[in-house]
Fold:
Amino acid sequence: MPVMAVVGAQWGDEGKGKIVDMLAEKASVVARYQGGNNAGHTVINHLGEFRLHLVPAGIFDPRVTCIIGNGVVIDPQALIDEIDLLASRGISVDNLCISERAHAIMPYHILLDRLEEQARGRQSIGTTGRGIGPAYSDKVARTGIRMGDLVDRTLLRDKLAFILEQKNRILTKLYDAEPLSLKEVHERYLQYGERLARHIKNTTQLVQSAIAEGRNVLLEGAQGTLLDLDFGTYPYVTSSSPTSGAACSGLGIAPTQITCALGVFKAYQTRVGAGPFPTEIYDETGEMIRELGQEYGTLTGRPRRIGWFDAVLAQHAMQVNGFKSIAITRLDILDTLPRLKICVKYRFDGIEDSYPPIDLARCEPVYEEHPGWQTPTGGIRRFDELPQAARSYVNRLAELIGVNLDIVSVGANREQTIMLNSML
Ligand code: IMP
Structure:
């Protein structure tokens, strides 16, 4: 039975939420393995429209166990808000399990994320300001607070006393900011612990048991491969690894237990925040795609930068994730365009190559052009009913990536999906 990782293959916002929500129908477990509430997964299904940040997109099916794994960083207040919002709309969170090993985002992480961004000035990364980078930094520096620590009054106080003294020195001396009160932070996080205690568990055992019993398990990635700390456009990346390999360390499963990785690609390319983007479109076509696709950040509302599909970066994503199949989303957004471009190579340092160099800012894209189909596709449910030009465009993308195409998405609703194969 499959243990399938669903991975963003570009700069995030590829539509993973919709794909996971759809595949979750046949899964027993949906487990998120990295990132935090910097993510914004939009799901539109029979229950309405939802924006998830931390809770896995399997939550709408009460049969599914939803796990927030050890590789995720959790802002407890943001998680409680999300749980309350779901509950207010009649969605049960009884099956939500939070890893005791997941690290908590603390108030100083959020403060430092924003202060560090300000200090970077023109070199700022354009983070979501949710404390993600500082929380992962503390995890690596071994000064993090884990979700399991929030249910132990003395342990939490002892850890916080040491850490907060250091953080307050940085806040006051380096940034001239107000210090945080140990008593307040301690009490507040104990309350979070109390509220979330029934969900905090050894989630590795849960995933392992499901795999041992041969049940379908979906591993839900957040952000995208090009925001990966190692394989993304460093330093304009997030502070975790959205790639498929991170599902192992982010949940406590072995590489041999993952049966396949599904890469989710948009039919074009978007990016929020700073950093190189070789195929970025600066003219009215970009504006048009942004408006048609409502390409504004789910979390921050920032306009997303728009570009043509970049097959060089797609092949890189294919390599580092080992996709066995792919989903192409948002094809319908391109319905009105008369012509489309796909970047098939880069020109840099006087040569042409199909592998991205370390510094993408030096790359000039080499495009091939394709005719548009100029026909609405949102109502189409079978691949062979797509206009010929649309079929040839997505087939070309799959050919360039070098992998089977299994899903084409032609709208935000669950049913606006063309399945070429049964995935689970
Ligand atoms: P951080 O993850 O908040 O540290 O932000 C680092 C970079 O990742 C910024 O460019 C963000 O815009 C980007 N980023 C983080 N999460 C997402 C996401 O879910 N979708 C798209 N971009 C994201």
